Amino acid sequence: MSSRIIYFSAFLLFSFTHLHSQKLYRAEGSWQARWEANETREQAYDKVIQLAIVNAIESTFGKFAIGDFDMRMDDAHVNYNYIAGTRTRGIWVETTKGPFIKEFTRVVDGRYGKENETWLECTIEGMVKECVGRANIEFSALNCPKKTCRQTAFNDRENLYLYFRSPVDGHLSVFLEDIDTVYRLLPYVNMEALSTVSIKGDKEYIFFSRDPQHEYDTKYLTDRIILPAKKDIEYHKLHILFSDKNYYKPNLSDTVVRPGEILPRSMTTREFQKWLSGCRVIDGFQDDWVKISVEKK
Question: Residue 83 belongs to what domain range?
Answer without folding.
Answer: 25-130
